[in-house]
Amino acid sequence: MSMPRRSMSTPLRGMSPTTFPLYFGGSSAPAGPVAARHADVYLTWGEPPAQVAEKLDWIRGLAKEEGREVRFGIRLHVLTRDTTEAAWAQAQSLLDGLDPADVAKAQEALAASESVGQQRMRALHETRRDVTDAHDLEIHPGLWAGVGLVRGGAGTALVGSHAEVADLVEEYAALGIDEFILSGYPHVEEAYWFAEGVKPILRHRGLLA
Predict the structure, then answer these.
(1) What is the rounded distance in angstroms from the CA atom of residue 175 to the CA atom of residue 140?
(2) Do 72 and 172 form a contact (C-beta atoms < 8 A)?
(3) How far apart are CA 48 and CA 172, in angstroms?
(4) Distance in angstroms (rounded) separating the CA atoms of residues 18 and 31
(5) What pTM was computed for the model?
(6) 76, 180 contact by CB (below 8 A)
(7) Which SS3 state, helix, strand or coil, does residue 115 take?
(8) Per-residue pLDDT reduced to its tens digit, 183-201
(9) How many CB atoms neighbour CB 105 within 10 A?
(10) How do the domains of the chain map onto residue ranges?
């Protein structure tokens, strides 16, 4: 795929004119045409693969009408360990650490959001907010909605062994996702787990340069 680039009309002081790719995200009906006309990379939050596929097809169709091609990225959290059991034990620890009052307060605030993307995130765990077992918030094999109980925006995480997380990354990549924006809790620790456990698998599979 080609990646059209947009020139900045006014370079920053002291900098020569240059170009930057434009990243854009939005799930509302008006957001689609904007992405199709102007974005180089369309970003989505981590919904189950079937829902992501529908969204990507939507943007592809709109971009085609504009005579353009758009690349895709996804925003996710990651919780990966040497074994499946260890990864889910950590997810359980995160869930156990949440105060139900904090969950209720966060959900009340998020319910007032007019963001369609946020509404879609909340819908992923709408009927599961009072669960005590982390597995009950698994909305697709290895995709966990527990983060969204207290966090706005990206509310899902890839949870599992290194190979299982790599499988999910590959599943999203097969849909057309080119870029993955990942984080974790605590961030530095999860970054090390991913770099040392998952990246070698992805590289072996030819998914990383």
Answers:
(1) 15
(2) no
(3) 9
(4) 26
(5) 0.86
(6) yes
(7) coil
(8) 999 999 999 999 999 999 9
(9) 12
(10) 6-204
